[in-house]
Amino acid sequence: MKGFYKLSELDAQQARRLAERALALRAGAPARRFPQLALGLLFMSPSLRTQASMQRAAAKMALQLIQLQSGGNGVWNLELSDGAVMDGTTVEHVREAAAVLGRFVDMLAIRAFAGGQSLEEDWADPVLRAFQQFAGVPIVNLESAQWHPCQALADWSTLDLFRVPRRAKFVLTWAWHPKPLPQAVPNSTLTMAAQRGMDVVVLRPDGYDLRPEVLAEARALAAASGGTVTVTSNRKEALEGASVVYAKSWGSLVHYGDAAAEGAFRSGLRDWCVSNAWFSGAAPDAKFMHCLPVRRNVVVRDEVLDGPRSIVIDQAENRLHAQMALLEELAASVESARRGSAPEAVHTASL
Ligand code: CP
């Protein structure tokens, strides 16, 4: 394993094995320990679950931890553009920042959300790609402009934990939100459920499609795993027989970068707030999932979040176990690559 940018870099069998290992760790299996290795965490966007679970994972695995934040008194404001004349707000180029961090740590995990201004720029995932290019150590994506693979892996293990069958109906539903949010989570949720072999329905109002490239990849993954992917705006049909309803808001590609136009576009969609009425009759036993944080009574009503179908807290806990499973594999790969290196190439962080 050379890093972890998106879940579909793993084949379905590898992903299934990591999800199983996550549940074994959750059940109390001892984690592998790597006291000679250092893990770097760089948060360029806010987080509760990802920060806390990565810190806890590092402690349980005896990894040396270096955690950095951007903004305020955090790391310098980074420049990403090649050839930039840096006489503005950026102080350090990612070429140096990534390369230097790569001398201090053996694995580097980064969170950097979409800028939300340019669709093409966000699709290129410039921060994650730059660190992959210049750090010289494996990079773990803790949510980039396009993908949130650690969330997806944890979600896979959560479906296993609740014994949701592989071919069950999985509804990824859009929900209203006051702001246009990035598509990293819905992209990752869709491809995860497709790769797991589920019958995935993307339920969204017209104008809220995910990128065609993401849908095409999900359809290919589903076909390979025996599942299906459909897209609809018909809520009743979508929810009929669902085993899981996974809510997430995301911004429209039609008005990407124009928050005012997007706000007007979604102004009539406030009824896209998941309530108990969504389930009655159509999907009485369906579980409710959300990656959190969630705006109560905006994205989902209290009655659902506080009711028996909600599994969001277990879902969040599984971030820890899934990331430990992932880091075990990654750290073992780093160690085995080191053992194959000539002595002079030994990485400074392991000295
Ligand atoms: N789901 C998730 O990534 O949570 P945080 O943004 O709090 O890390």
Walk me through this protein's architecture:
The protein is α/β, with parallel strands linked by helices. Helices cover 38% and strands 14% of the residues. It has twelve helices and eleven strands. The strands form three sheets. It has a five-stranded parallel sheet with strand order 9-8-7-10-11. A four-stranded parallel sheet has the order 2-1-5-6, sandwiched between helices. Strands 3-4 form a two-stranded parallel sheet. Helix 7 (184-195) runs parallel beside helix 8 (212-225). Phosphoric acid mono(formamide)ester binds next to helix 2. Phosphoric acid mono(formamide)ester (CP) binds at residues 47-50, 143, 151, 291-293.
Backbone structural class = alpha/beta
| Strand arrangement in the largest pleated sheet | 9-8-7-10-11
Uncertain runs with pLDDT below 50, 5 residues or more? 342-351
- The name CATH uses for the topology of the largest domain is Rossmann fold
What's the tally of helices? Answer: 12
Mean pLDDT: 95
How many domains in all? 2
What is the percentage of strand-forming residues? 5-15%
The whole-angstrom Rg is 20 Å
Q: Report the end-to-end length measured between terminal Cα atoms.
A: 22 Å
What overall geometry do the principal axes of the alpha carbons give?
Answer: globular
Small-molecule binders here are: phosphoric acid mono(formamide)ester
